[in-house]
Amino acid sequence: MPKEVMERSASDNEYLHKDFHGALSTGIAYLQEKYGDDSVRDYLRRFTLAHYAALREDVQARGLVALAEHFQRVYATEGASARIRCSDDEMVIELDECPAVMHMREHGYAIAPMWVETTRAVNEALVEGTVFRAELVDYDELTGARVERFFRREEL
């Protein structure tokens, strides 16, 4: 029988990392229990500043459109039903349910009490040092449904 060779690369596969969220939730719960609430926020902030450095530079250069493109890619990959409205001065994201929260619930993962910080602290860090601010307008702990808002800071 002749030898058959199949060539594949990682990019040939659909990218999904849903179980990552369960591991992150466990890590967040551990940090909170052992080191307190501020340790969770500090970890997420530091991670965001390092991991999303290029995105943060893009926000500095192009404004909120850079964030809108980023979130459109993320939510499309995760299969989320997200509505994103964006102008030069404000971006609002409405998410009917969070795919990570729903996946964790469906598979019996514990959801860390501070899971909401994966949105709030990360968004704040994404725009840290820019002319923009981030706020979590609304959040449903049961489904992860939320309204996120990024907006231009008012001049002092």
Would you write up a description of this structure?
- The chain is 49% helix and 17% strand.
- Strands 1-2-4-3 form a 4-stranded antiparallel sheet, with helices on one face.
- β1 (82-86) and β2 (90-95) form a beta hairpin.
- The chain has helices at 18-35, 37-51, 53-62, 64-78, 99-106, 117-126, and strands at residues 82-86, 90-95, 132-139, 146-152.
- The protein has a single domain (17-152), classed as 2-Layer Sandwich (Muramoyl-pentapeptide Carboxypeptidase, domain 2).
- The protein has 6 helices and 4 strands, in the order ααααββααββ.
- The longest helix has 18 residues, at 18-35.
- The chain is globular, with a radius of gyration of 18 Å.
- The protein is an alpha+beta fold and 156 residues long.
- α2 (37-51) packs across α6.
- The model has no long low-confidence stretch (mean pLDDT 92).
| Major sheet | 4 strands, antiparallel
What is the straight-line distance between the termini?
Answer: 77 Å
How are the strands ordered across the major sheet? 1-2-4-3
How many helices in DSSP terms?
6
Order of helices and strands: HHHHEEHHEE
CATH architectural label? 2-Layer Sandwich
Mean pLDDT across every amino acid position: 92
Query: What is the CATH homology-level superfamily?
Result: Trafficking protein particle complex subunit 3
CATH topology: Muramoyl-pentapeptide Carboxypeptidase, domain 2
Silhouette: globular
Number of strands: 4
- Rg over CA atoms, rounded to whole Å, is 18 Å
Q: Which residues sit in consecutive blocks of at least 5 with pLDDT less than 50?
A: none
- What's the CATH first level? Alpha Beta
